């Protein structure tokens, strides 16, 4: 009857591939310090997928050497609506019946307008 809260999803099972901050930095051609700043500034999101491991970034957030188009704005929007990185990552990777697929797939396919509209609606 009750839906699983975003924060309660198993991120390790939900996100197919994770990369550490060093690999993220390598793929984006920036320093690890810059990756940390990008996470703090909501240009990227990170979480601990498995207890005892460090924070990692979903590999799908990086495409062709750049942060996926539209992701930073979406992260800021969702943070402004009091979602944390863990909840945002879960939402981005959960399939949506009428999208189709998951919001991260839509962002990677340059279909971010609908994703942003859905994120705005979640604030209400």
Question: Can you characterise this structure?
Answer:
- This protein has 124 residues and is mainly α.
- The protein has one domain (11-121).
- Helix content is 45%, strand content 6%.
- The chain is built from seven helices and four strands, in the order αβααβββαααα.
- It has helices at 11-14, 21-28, 32-40, 71-80, 85-93, 103-108, 112-121, and strands spanning 18-19, 57-58, 62-63, 66-67.
- It has a two-stranded antiparallel sheet with strand order 1-2.
- Helix 2 (21-28) packs across helix 3 (32-40) and helix 4 runs parallel beside helix 7 (112-121).
- The longest helix has 10 residues, at 71-80.
- The chain is globular.
- 28% of the residues are buried.
- The mean pLDDT is 92.
Task: List strands and helices in order, with pairings.
Elements: H1 11-14, E1 18-19, H2 21-28, H3 32-40, E2 57-58, E3 62-63, E4 66-67, H4 71-80, H5 85-93, H6 103-108, H7 112-121
Antiparallel strand pairs: 1-2, 3-4
Number of domains as seen in the coordinates = 1
Biggest sheet layout: 2 strands, antiparallel
Mean pLDDT: 92
Rg (CA only)? 14 Å
What is the terminal-to-terminal distance?
21 Å
Helix amount, in percent? 40-55%
Give the helix tally: 7
Give the CA-based shape.
globular
């Amino acid at each position: 009857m009750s839906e699983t809260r975003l924060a309660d999803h198993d991120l390790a099972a939900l996100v197919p591939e994770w990369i550490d901050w060093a690999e993220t930095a390598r793929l984006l051609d920036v320093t690890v310090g810059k990756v940390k700043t990008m996470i703090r500034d909501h240009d990227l999101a990170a979480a601990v997928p498995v207890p005892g491991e460090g924070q990692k970034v979903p590999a799908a957030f990086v495409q062709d050497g750049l942060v996926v188009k539209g992701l930073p704005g979406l992260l800021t929007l969702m943070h402004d609506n009091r979602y944390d990185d863990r909840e945002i990552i879960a939402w981005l990777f959960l399939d949506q019946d009428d999208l189709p697929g998951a919001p991260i797939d839509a962002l990677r396919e340059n279909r971010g307008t609908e994703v942003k509209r859905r994120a705005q609606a979640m604030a209400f």
